[in-house]
Amino acid sequence: MTSIPLLPADRPPDRPSRLVDDFTPRLLLPGEHSFCPGCGEPAVMRAVAELVDELEMTTRSVGVIGIGCYTGFAGALDIEVLQALHGRAPSLATGLKRSRPDTIVFTVQGDGDMVNEGLQEVLHSAARGERITSILLNNGVFGETGGHMTATTVLGQRTKNTLEGRNAPDHGYPIRLSDILAGIDGTAYVARGATNSAGNVSRLRRMLRKAFEVQAAGLGFSFVEVLTMCPTGWFIETEEAPDYLSNSLAEVHTIGVVKDITAA
User: Fold this and answer.
1) What does pTM read for this prediction?
2) Which of 157, 177, 189 shows the shortest CA–CA distance to 114?
3) At residue 159, does pLDDT exceed 80?
4) Any idea which fold 41-263 has?
5) Measured distance CA(210)–CA(219) in Å, rounded
6) What is the number of other CB atoms lying within 10 angstroms of the CB of residue 6?
7) pLDDT of 113-137, one tens digit each?
8) Measured between alpha carbons, how far is 182 from 126 in angstroms, rounded to an integer?
9) Which of 25, 71, 184, 235 has the fewest CB atoms inside 10 Å of its own CB, making it the most exposed?
10) Contact at 8 Å (CB) between 151 and 119?
11) What is the full DSSP assignment across 102-126?
12) Which helix (H) or strand (E) holds 135?
């Protein structure tokens, strides 16, 4: 076997770099994004774009996007997209799905948008068994508006308005939304993944695929919560974010499949 020589690290390379292949998903429009270094949300949106394409759902899929940092992806997806008011994505998705039942409808919301601003929307959509897929991007902060505490912020987590860490007497306890939704009869699939390692991203893709398949089969409401990194809002260095997610958010919002009616 021929070994490939390593390029020297103490000086510029002798020949310019070249593009080996373009690995951009077909449904993700090319171009740079404006997300902070270390953010986990681009990995989620990439996975969604790849799966819609792989499952051959492109021409009948519509994404309903909430208000948050991820809203910037609304114009980067080569998928039909509707923009919802703060917290209202599940209701907009419900109306779309009921008027066009053959459409694959998914929502993308952050924890501030879904669990603070619009908690009743997702709870009632689940209780009605709406055949939509809701995706929660959970980093425990209102990232777009400065990084203050949300309803999912874990105890001890620093945010812009909990600089000493969230504490229960002053701020209450974090809401574990996946656990709540799993107890509602209208839900068919509930899972919680993460973006802080290659292995977790691979597991997340399987969760998202299953959620879309459950919707396509008409089995009920499907939900995937994703723990994402936000080193800017967490007041830590970028390289510390994956371990911080494991040692803080994931200790409370535990990773795994919470409910799957097809596994019985």
Assistant:
1) 0.89
2) 177
3) yes
4) Rossmann fold (3.40.50)
5) 11
6) 6
7) 999 999 999 999 999 999 999 999 9
8) 9
9) 235
10) yes
11) TSEEEEEEEHIIIIII-HHHHHHHH
12) strand 133-138
- In order of 183, 224, 246, 255, the CA distances from 196 in angstroms are 27, 16, 8, 12
Which tokens hold the place of 247? 């040692």
Closest of 187, 202, 204, 184 to residue 256, by C-alpha: 204
Residue corresponding to tokens 């997610």: 245
Assign 221 to helix, strand or coil: strand
d(CA 150, CA 15): 49
Q: Which residues contact 24 (CB under 8 A, 6 or more apart)?
A: 30
In whole angstroms, what is the distance from residue 243 CA to residue 143 CA? 19
Question: Which tokens is 237 given?
Answer: 């260095």
Residues written for the chain: 264
For residues 67 and 74, what is the distance between their CA atoms, to the nearest angstrom? 10
What's the one-letter identity of residue 97? K
pLDDT tens-digit series, residues 28-72: 666 666 788 888 888 998 899 899 999 999 899 999 999 888 877
The strand order across the sheet containing 187-194 reads 80-83, 61-65, 104-110, 133-138, 221-227, 187-194, 256-260
Residue at 15: amino acid letter? R
Q: Which two tokens stand for residue 50?
A: 């790849």
CA proximity to 227, closest of 123, 154, 126: 154
